[in-house]
Please model this.
Amino acid sequence: MAKPLIRSIKGTHDILPDQSWRWQRIENTVRAFMKRFGYREIRTPVFERTELFARGVGQETDIVSKEMYSFVDKSGNNLTLKPEVTASVIRAYLQHNLGRQSPMTKLYYLDRAFRQERPQAGRYRQHHQFGVEAIGSPHPETDAEVISIAHGVLKELGLSDLELRLNSIGSQTSRTNYRQALKAFLKPHLSELSETSRRRFDTNPLRILDTKVPHEIEILKDAPVLTDYLTPEDAEHFDAVKTLLRALGIPFVLDSRLVRGLDYYTRTTFEFTSSALGAQNALCGGGRYDHLVETLGGKPTPAIGFAAGIERILLALETNNNEAQPETIDIYFVCLDENARPFVLQLANKLRGLGFTVETDLLRRSLKAQLREANRLHARLALIIGETEFQNQTVQVKDLTTTEQKSVNWDSLVDYISRLNFNSE
Ligand code: AMP
Model:
């Protein structure tokens, strides 16, 4: 009896060969884009001490309180699969003292994150992110640069229906002022609020603004707006960010409910959404986190960053992304003579060394089956070696687009092929 198949874990996905080229395209675009802005790649481990996220993201957040994949290893260490990347990047920044090399550290990453959420379209238990962290500057031009990177890279990836939502949650002082006003407003509505929001009323009332409950959203429509409570310095910073975004031609809408789920954010918060997505419409979220470095044991260092979800980008691109895989190969080697095999493998490697994409038949198929395979792979040329060709030291070169066939000597083969105009990548 056949053994039962072992399947992947719910909420995780294999990226199969007919899709992986899309991922590579995104990764290549991200890398090239970041290079132009002078951001350098950082790679951090897939798991960290649980404490890092408890401290750096916040106990109060859904991510830490409900969604982490945490475990105790055989030595009794409490570890967690990274639910987001910023805390790890800042941990590495501090551990390796990157700030000593330069007062401004500009980093980017391509990584995966793990959250035990209820899987649905655009929400998975393992997902992939890219993002940047600009560490060291409190100035609004940094906020504008980071937002313009997110905007630019999403555009370059082919996303058109983007909306930038922008807010400022100010500094601690602004938020203390606002918290009082928000609590005074919500007090008469307390009995109408969900249990979660009632709890947050005491622990972290700002997070009530994050609610997804429709009647709470309705109540909040008349709530005081945080940006009206900003200190003059916070308001000036926010105005400067808006002015810079206008100068860069990046449209935005103000969204006073954008408080983000993470505790370490200060001042600017932003999100790019796509109308091509359903309920999970956030492509990218970010903001300033001037207190995180300190929270993790460093000296006070302002910073701002964003993280964008690659699965959601692919979902948003899907509608206008139905083109076939743009992959072809240059050469398919058809070998019909056993004695020719070592020579065929050698020549195939030589041509690969020159940059051609070359495949050989590994199944010892018939001529007809091998040519069928060459066509399936959209090979430009088939190189055919049978007994006669091997004895005469020749190769039949068949152009699979024109079906023209020509006998070429081994000596002149590389030259002959190199002179053909290949335009595959
Ligand atoms: P966050 O750290 O929650 O702001 O996440 C950054 C980005 O990652 C979001 O804007 C989404 O595009 C994406 N994202 C977050 N959580 C998930 C998830 N569970 N599944 C897929 N993508 C996600």
Remarks:
- The mean pLDDT is 92.
- Residues 84, 115, 117, 122-124, 127, 129, 282-285, 307-309, 311-312 surround adenosine monophosphate (CB under 6 Å).
- The chain has two domains: 18-171+231-319, 329-418.
- The first helix runs from residue 17 to 37.
